[in-house]
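ok, trying the design again with the full structure, not the truncated one.
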């Protein structure tokens, strides 16, 4: 049977659309104000904006989607193709799942947010090691995310009661404000944003301890099928955009 001109045109259009779709990289991001979040339907945040600038500079077609952290890493683990995310620590267990970019952002050290009911007990400790050795205290943790290798190891060996929750950091902070746990570790930049915007946190206390590990680097991560040329373009864009902001 002869293929009509219309049929051939439709077939070519479908093939071109399919090829174009395959070239689009999905960039997934988790809600984490002030770095990346949605407010009144508008995407905001310094790292979200930086990521969009990086991929635009790298001339990579993208589709940005907001997804929970657990889903993002599940997508990497099942081999989702043309898939990237940003703002993640470099951990040994992630090396087999993703490619890491150049440094995308560097955190300041974490800080400690203390519940109103536990202020005196927590403040009595002069080091993070002593705080985590106190079995009378509970530590609130956002599940499915890392606090960095050093803190992850300390948490693993902690004598605190660990209260895990599949929630956002801002919601965990509210749980601390409601005395659902004694304290939590929180990104300093997250706290600086939350303390000025959330009245539920007015009775919480922020403290720093001398043995808090230094802040870590964060990276853009991409599935293994993303080409070397694309990763090189991403890294070049990071150098131009992020490094220029630090100079």
């Amino acid at each position: 049977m002869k293929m009509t001109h219309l049929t051939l045109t439709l077939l070519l259009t479908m093939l071109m659309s399919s090829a174009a779709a395959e070239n689009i990289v999905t960039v997934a991001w988790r809600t984490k104000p002030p770095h990346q979040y949605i407010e009144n339907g508008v995407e905001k945040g310094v790292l979200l904006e930086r990521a969009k600038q990086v991929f635009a500079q790298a001339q990579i077609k993208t589709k940005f989607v907001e997804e929970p952290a657990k889903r993002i890493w599940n997508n990497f683990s099942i081999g989702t193709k043309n898939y990237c995310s940003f703002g993640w620590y470099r951990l040994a267990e992630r090396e087999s799942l993703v490619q890491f970019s150049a440094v995308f952002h560097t955190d300041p050290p974490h800080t400690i947010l203390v519940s109103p009911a536990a202020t005196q007990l927590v403040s009595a400790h002069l080091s993070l090691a002593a705080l985590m050795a106190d079995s009378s205290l509970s530590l609130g943790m956002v599940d499915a995310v890392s606090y960095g290798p050093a803190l992850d190891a300390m948490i693993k060996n902690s004598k605190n009661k660990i209260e895990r929750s599949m929630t956002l950091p801002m919601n965990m902070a509210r749980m601390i404000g409601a005395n659902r746990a004694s304290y939590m570790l929180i990104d300093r930049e997250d706290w600086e944003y939350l303390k000025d915007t959330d009245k539920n946190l007015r009775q919480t206390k922020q403290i720093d301890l001398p043995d808090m590990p230094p802040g870590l680097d964060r990276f853009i991560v991409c599935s293994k099928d993303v080409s070397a040329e694309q990763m090189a373009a991403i890294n070049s864009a990071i150098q131009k955009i992020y490094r220029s902001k630090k100079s």
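Keeping the full-length input from now on. The chain has two domains: 23-107+216-246, 111-207.
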